[in-house]
């Protein structure tokens, strides 16, 4: 059954909800939906109270480590962490309380997939404590096997790696889960990439969480149906705890009935 995977997105030390495609090195181009007055640990404590495991803390750029570590301390073993994760710092975050580290850019040097880098961080963190982020855009000229192209560096750099059945099977040997943001719709509340959810449900050999575009309680039922219960769902900007219209408490009640 589809589970709710909560999130804490950090930018300049603050909990924010951001339009994913607007992320860049220039903060003046950033489109922000919500900036919380509450600290990261408040959200972690809320998720802990409600027994929500496997959510993710994402550090969007520098200046977020202190807030992230406080959130991990507030909910030890309850959340994953990503953003700038490398083989050199993976153990630091695991020891600080992360249930897993989320690797992205470090396995795509210069936008090229590196099996060597993947093996190195998998060895350092262990397969059990490693999640691979395959956040993606729809390919400009897709064919039947290459519809979604993975992006790194705040989703500004397209890689040579596509989400396909073969690629999912290949890298699943080195990690315990996938996290997939549909970057083109992330933070826009304009609807999910239904085809991507269905594809992940059919072809991912390990647990996978989808994020991007969810804007209603019905989206949990849709995700559950399309993926046959094999894809979990993150909803961020649309939640009332992030300034949206979807009541967090109703989400908690709904997922207990799926």
How is this fold's topology laid out?
Blueprint: E1 7-11, E2 14-18, E3 32-35, H1 40-49, E4 55-59, H2 65-74, E5 79-82, H3 90-95, E6 100-103, H4 115-125, E7 130-133, E8 136-143, E9 146-152, E10 157-162, H5 165-171, E11 177-181, H6 194-203, E12 208-211, H7 218-226, E13 231-234, H8 248-255
Parallel strand pairs: 1-4, 4-5, 5-6, 6-7, 7-11, 11-12, 12-13
Antiparallel strand pairs: 1-2, 2-3, 8-9, 9-10
Helix pairs in contact: 1-2
Largest sheet properties? 10 strands, mixed
Strand order in space, largest sheet: 3-2-1-4-5-6-7-11-12-13
Q: Residue ranges: pLDDT <50 for 5 or more in a row?
A: none
Strand content: 25-35%
Roughly what percent helix?
25-40%
Alpha plus pi helix count: 8
Order of helices and strands: EEEHEHEHEHEEEEHEHEHEH
Describe this structure in words.
- The protein has 258 residues and is α/β, with parallel strands linked by helices.
- The protein is 28% helix and 25% strand.
- The protein has eight helices and 13 strands.
- The protein has helices spanning 40-49, 65-74, 90-95, 115-125, 165-171, 194-203, 218-226, 248-255; strands at 7-11, 14-18, 32-35, 55-59, 79-82, 100-103, 130-133, 136-143, 146-152, 157-162, 177-181, 208-211, 231-234.
- It has a ten-stranded mixed sheet with strand order 3-2-1-4-5-6-7-11-12-13.
